[in-house]
Amino acid sequence: MVIVLGPEATPDNIVAIVDLVNDAGGEAYVTRGVSRTIVGLVGDVERFENLNLRTLPGVHDVLRISAPYKLVSRQNHDSRTVVSVAGVPIGGDSVTLIAGPCAVETPDQTMEAARMAQAAGAALLRGGAFKPRSSPYAFQGLGEVGLKILADVRAETGLPIVTEVVDAADVDLVASYADMLQVGTRNMQNFALLQAVGAAGKPVMLKRGMSATIEEWLMAAEYIAQRGNLDIVLCERGIRTYEKATRNTLDISAVPVAQNLTHLPVIVDPSHSGGKRDLVLPLSRAAVAVGADGVIIDVHPHPETALCDGPQALVGSDLAELADLMDTLPALLGRTRTKGPVAAPAGV
Amino acid sequence: MVIVLGPEATPDNIVAIVDLVNDAGGEAYVTRGVSRTIVGLVGDVERFENLNLRTLPGVHDVLRISAPYKLVSRQNHDSRTVVSVAGVPIGGDSVTLIAGPCAVETPDQTMEAARMAQAAGAALLRGGAFKPRSSPYAFQGLGEVGLKILADVRAETGLPIVTEVVDAADVDLVASYADMLQVGTRNMQNFALLQAVGAAGKPVMLKRGMSATIEEWLMAAEYIAQRGNLDIVLCERGIRTYEKATRNTLDISAVPVAQNLTHLPVIVDPSHSGGKRDLVLPLSRAAVAVGADGVIIDVHPHPETALCDGPQALVGSDLAELADLMDTLPALLGRTRTKGPVAAPAGV
Amino acid sequence: MVIVLGPEATPDNIVAIVDLVNDAGGEAYVTRGVSRTIVGLVGDVERFENLNLRTLPGVHDVLRISAPYKLVSRQNHDSRTVVSVAGVPIGGDSVTLIAGPCAVETPDQTMEAARMAQAAGAALLRGGAFKPRSSPYAFQGLGEVGLKILADVRAETGLPIVTEVVDAADVDLVASYADMLQVGTRNMQNFALLQAVGAAGKPVMLKRGMSATIEEWLMAAEYIAQRGNLDIVLCERGIRTYEKATRNTLDISAVPVAQNLTHLPVIVDPSHSGGKRDLVLPLSRAAVAVGADGVIIDVHPHPETALCDGPQALVGSDLAELADLMDTLPALLGRTRTKGPVAAPAGV
Amino acid sequence: MVIVLGPEATPDNIVAIVDLVNDAGGEAYVTRGVSRTIVGLVGDVERFENLNLRTLPGVHDVLRISAPYKLVSRQNHDSRTVVSVAGVPIGGDSVTLIAGPCAVETPDQTMEAARMAQAAGAALLRGGAFKPRSSPYAFQGLGEVGLKILADVRAETGLPIVTEVVDAADVDLVASYADMLQVGTRNMQNFALLQAVGAAGKPVMLKRGMSATIEEWLMAAEYIAQRGNLDIVLCERGIRTYEKATRNTLDISAVPVAQNLTHLPVIVDPSHSGGKRDLVLPLSRAAVAVGADGVIIDVHPHPETALCDGPQALVGSDLAELADLMDTLPALLGRTRTKGPVAAPAGV
Hints:
Chains A, B, C, D: Residues 1-66 form the DAHP synthase ferredoxin-like domain. By secondary structure, chain A is α/β, with parallel strands linked by helices. The first copy, chain A, contains eleven helices and 15 strands. Chain A folds into two domains: 2-63, Phospho-2-dehydro-3-deoxyheptonate aldolase, domain 1 (Alpha-Beta Plaits, 2-Layer Sandwich), CATH 3.30.70.1140; 83-337, TIM Barrel (Alpha-Beta Barrel), CATH 3.20.20. In chain A, the strands form three sheets. In chain A, strands 7, 8, 9, 10, 11, 12, 13, 14 and 15 form a nine-stranded parallel β-sheet that branches. In chain A, strands 2-3-1-4 form a four-stranded antiparallel β-sheet, with helices on one face. A two-stranded antiparallel sheet of chain A has the order 5-6. In chain A, α6 (191-198) crosses α7. The longest helix of chain A is centred in the middle third of the chain and has 14 residues, at 144-157.
């Protein structure tokens, strides 16, 4: 059972609830978030029902939820959540394109990629400054230098920034630059990191672990939600199977399955799923058609020299087709492409 | 290396080719199909090149193909194949809907399901009379009785029939009723069956093995092609992974990957992939959007009493949405829905 | 529910049982095997209980079994089955080594491999005359010529023969030479083949499908058992996973899990699991240590020229270590190596 | 290319090496560990060869290694590493049993489990104070209280402690109590944590990610090694497959495969692999037989009330069989069980 407190709840209100639960033989785990406080109850649900918790001061909602994840479950949560990233919505009636370079390499490369993203209709800019790499000898990202480049590009293009954080110790630093924090596939069960981004007060994009079940993915989201942050976007990015023709196997069914189980938006990363440029557009079409709330795509001005994942990046000549896809396919499904800031002419 | 002989090739022509290959230290495997004869060469390719095989009488084509599958490879095969099933095309500019009951149970159930299929815009009727079942205690299909029911329904609706064959010994019987033979996922590497359907003179739908790589799938198609039958449609139906929320994991990327590797049409089975009714329409949209040449869907008038796979069958109230999808989504991609015979009013 | 009839049951006895079941609203499936007849009942178990079936003439046993597989289930079957292959036991207190070439190529190669097998302590000779190959361009085996070679080698060495059959139409032919029929991984759900080997009156080795669950494997065994043949040995040969360092992933846990669920013997194929010569001995040790009832191993006098799976074959210098393993490790577990015919000196 | 510096290398020596590499157009990554300093070179290997790096002051070794992991590779590393945990060896000629409770719950439970471990012949005590749990509502461990309990039990039994750390921020705290740090399966690619344990000056047990390839596992070990810590023990704990009969699929082949690729010891966790008590002993036998350098096993005095993974814990009546296994099976393979401190009588 989970108690959701409103912003008006006082520390005394919370103490009163905890005492009541303890007296009933239960345990109460209090998690104070930026905008709300959550109290998770462990113990005898029948006895908790008799406490009339819903009538206590400060209590906004009391959820009795059978799913192992509670705050992110669609049970008792009629409407689907729309997450706002610096004013750009993800979820609801819109379909959001996020694009940018896999890794921030130089100011020029990042600016060029952002212009490409904007030309394709992107409303948000992706780009990695901290890169989790399987090999310690691979390029690990520019770190804070990369974050500053992203901030400069945002200032010029108006595109809010989505960027990855890989260490709980870096969350404050990354959050001071980013509009949305990304948790990558390898960190989906890095619980310290999940709790840290949950407490950071910024929206979070949570990629599915490459061998995580959908249930485990939602449990990972619950770790973030427990810290009071429900601005979470789930991102399917391909799972690991025996098939070798693609980098990963895009689990396209995960979109409708997750949307049935949670109120959170679900987007798709066709670049990391397929791992090949010529699969990105077909898989993007599949993602929008299946009902995804957005797609996140690698673009690079010069993929052949990219420091990370060049073979899967779209190039300039692909952008018109991507833009067309985003303009026409959502409409067929009764949705619209999320508008981002208009791109200024490149020469201006 | 593969030599394709034209219909005018005589037995003497073939003997001459074999002798020439043997003299060059190679081996020649001759496979006589209904409409063409194939000679596969094993040995030193350089020496074969010197034989000027292309100039010999009866020789239609000589293919030097590096892919492990040769006849079905897209190498040296510019145009994509359109397979004709009793006049209904699969492949090319059209998108074909195949629908019907998982298993033929009774004349009424089959007729009702066929009417449903037609209402949704199906051009072909699916329905199983021989069912491969994991358990020997499960319903194994009506056998020839079921084939007769299908033939009766075809006579009334005009819909050509796609039906499964599970034993090489039954191929002639099934082919005497069916317009297209289906090889199921469990039999994808039943090589005797593949060779038998290759020799049967009917188009074949080859489902991907539930844990087969795309390469193995194309190799299985090559077994059919080697018997002179290139009227093969590949069907992705979900692969086995650790995810438990769906019956199988639809490998949506397999469609564009296979289309890059082979000239054969590729369709999708969203019913067996997801295993749940509410996933069929989203996955069908994804399939058409990714570029599939068709979808094959379970429908049943009374899924709650179905003898096979009831939970994944579409019901009457789903048909309008399916019809709408088939009418609008292909058009967006520059394709059209394959028209089947028009449904006569149910009361006529 | 399953009724097992004794050899003394008459046709009239069987008709009487079927009538009784029909009158109770159920269905009875009669399967006549070589040594016993099985009647499977589908319907209301409670009503069947009231028929006192156990008291009817000819009835040997009545099994009420909750597992989806019934005849092979360990429920109601206290002792573990020992399968006798031309007098050589598999199961029980002994651990049986089966060895030989992957494919029969020539009389000399087969004879040499058989001598190697015998030197290592093998009690049975394996060797393929019909080879299921992913590619139609790969060596498909010598067919009946290969069977004759095996028979000649048996005559000289005394080793009974285990060989694969890939087509239901070949079962009688193969059974006329073989002492044990092997069903390969790709055919685990080739139900026509399972039923044919079930009726052939020879012991069967059933390899696990490369992506079959243990339950599906036992269901496949049930198809064989239903034809009256319970002389089935299960063989774990590695499953398909994402790991690329080995050909397959040996699921070593499958041995104790299957032994808990079925009374049939379970052996391991370390050659096809690992796919590398240097893994065969470690995996053989693991197999015997985990409690397998035997191992089946590829040996070849000249692996570098083998027509099939050379890289995984043991060579002469490995045999002493294999023989030592088979002599010492079973003893530690309270078992003994199954003795085969003694090898005559090679020069005699 | 990797340069290993001896403890006598001065800061000036290091600067000189870096300058030389830079002048040759390369990059040098310096990592100072507790006992040695590593310089990784990225760039043109041929030019580095000409620098005669091996002759420079402070240089201990120069490794040219083609494997993607270098420090942990068996290339250029003839002998297998023996890791010493507070004097207890893992690797070499010995086979080490590590046992204890999955989670530390109370002083009594931990003490009882330690006595059980010792009775079975364990040389090291395992026990979790920080537990990574899929659900935020599951027991997360006692934290530092649990570490203190472990230290008390060590004081009484003499058993060195292996315990998990889940957050880079906790590494110093955990290292102040533990004799060996464990990195769990979910954190195998938590690179910040890997680097932190690499710098902590304590031996590390690195569990394989539940869907990691063997190569990725060794790359993760390389992250630790790069910080100057080569006291790493690899632990295979089962991988994720479609099979549902076991919690995970023990990849027994991973032991010999990894031992061929790396000089580090490799042990097996049969408790988490199988997830069932009755599989622990068979899988332990398989692990020792395949050549593992040890096994790590869950034991619990009262599994039915365990807060974590009770169903897989061994109980008192299993211990004699485990002890017997550890005494006899290694001997058959020319190895011996690692002796730990002798258990004092429980009543003393």
